């Protein structure tokens, strides 16, 4: 059964709207005559832009209000950046589809287009991400990490308004907004490991809504689904309810899947990194095994310390 109309819930940022519009356009192209509308919903993360994500809870601050609307039946579909979606979903909701992944890397946007490796000592680099901050500190212990909040365009402007040397943001957002001309440099995953789900869209629906599930099925991309499953299994094993500087990236390689993961301290002084490879159908198990390997190599002590400190 295919639905006659579809209401898509989204945040109101330029990037969120571009992502939701991308989904809307493809549904309309696949299902001519279907009425598809966007419903803009403000989330806690959008409203409290002057407070760090760590202080306002981090997990779910960009999705909770949208998920609530989905559970109340006010929308039929939520379009999220998968990296914003907590490892555990509310009862009654599922991620039905992950379209093909966009570029998962981070990019460097610097003043005067100075490259990452040429950053001067005590450079001021802006990011709102614990993951990015601790990996950068691990490479450049003497740089100053300047916490950033706000939409992507706001963060890019702060290179000038906050007198920053550079900011680090996701390549996927820059591509989706057509801002690639502003990118100084792509940062390989071997240098800066991405966030879990980075570059992937999550199409979330009510678990019992078979009509919407069928409507969206054409957008399914199996390699992305397997990669996301492996990364989120890693996240679930390490999530723990506290804010952790962690990263994971899975990549299909033929019939196999490779997953890289890391966990560290926010000052960048301790970083534990591992990778595993195995059959594609065992992706989630690999993600769990990778998390266990990091815990055994000292990650458990980091986890305990971070959670105890309320980070």
Explain what you see.
The protein is an alpha/beta fold. It has three domains: 5-99 and 200-220, 3-Layer(aba) Sandwich (D-Maltodextrin-Binding Protein, domain 2), CATH 3.40.190.10; 106-187, Periplasmic binding protein-like II (D-Maltodextrin-Binding Protein, domain 2, 3-Layer(aba) Sandwich); 231-308, Double Stranded RNA Binding Domain. The chain is built from nine helices and 13 strands. The protein has helices at residues 14-30, 44-47, 64-71, 130-139, 152-161, 171-176, 210-216, 222-239, 283-308; strands at 5-10, 35-40, 77-81, 93-97, 106-110, 124-127, 144-147, 166-170, 185-187, 201-206, 246-253, 256-264, 271-279. The strands form three sheets. A five-stranded mixed β-sheet has the order 2-1-3-10-4, with helices on both faces. It starts with a strand and ends with a helix.
């Amino acid at each position: 059964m295919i639905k006659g109309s579809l209401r898509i819930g989204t945040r109101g940022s330029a990037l969120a709207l571009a992502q939701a519009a991308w989904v809307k356009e493809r549904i309309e192209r696949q299902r001519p005559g279907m009425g598809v509308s966007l419903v803009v919903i403000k989330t806690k993360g959008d409203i409290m832009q002057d407070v760090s994500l760590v202080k306002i809870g981090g997990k779910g601050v960009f999705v909770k209000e949208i998920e609530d609307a989905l559970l109340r039946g006010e929308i039929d579909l939520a379009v999220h950046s998968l990296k914003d979606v907590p490892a555990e979903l509310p009862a009654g909701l599922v991620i039905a589809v992950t379209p093909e992944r966009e570029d998962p890397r981070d990019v460097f946007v610097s003043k005067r287009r100075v490259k990452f490796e040429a950053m001067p000592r005590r450079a001021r680099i802006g990011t709102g991400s614990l993951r990015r901050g601790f990996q950068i500190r691990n490479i450049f212990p003497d740089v100053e990490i300047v916490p950033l909040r706000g939409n992507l365009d706001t963060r890019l402007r702060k290179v000038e308004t906050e007198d920053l040397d550079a900011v680090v943001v996701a390549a996927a957002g820059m591509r989706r907004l057509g801002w690639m001309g502003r990118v100084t440099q792509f940062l390989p995953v071997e240098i800066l490991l991405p966030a879990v789900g980075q570059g992937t869209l999550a199409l979330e629906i009510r678990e019992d809504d078979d009509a919407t599930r069928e409507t969206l099925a054409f957008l399914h991309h199996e390699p992305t689904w397997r990669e996301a499953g492996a990364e989120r299994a890693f996240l679930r094993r390490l999530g723990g309810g506290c804010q952790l500087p962690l990263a994971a990236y899975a990549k299909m390689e033929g019939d196999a899947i490779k997953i890289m993961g890391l966990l560290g301290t926010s000052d960048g002084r301790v970083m534990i990194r591992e990778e595993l490879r195995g059959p594609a159908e065992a992706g989630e198990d690999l993600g769990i095994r990778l998390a266990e390997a990091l815990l055994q190599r000292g990650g458990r002590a980091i986890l305990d310390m971070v959670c105890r400190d309320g980070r």
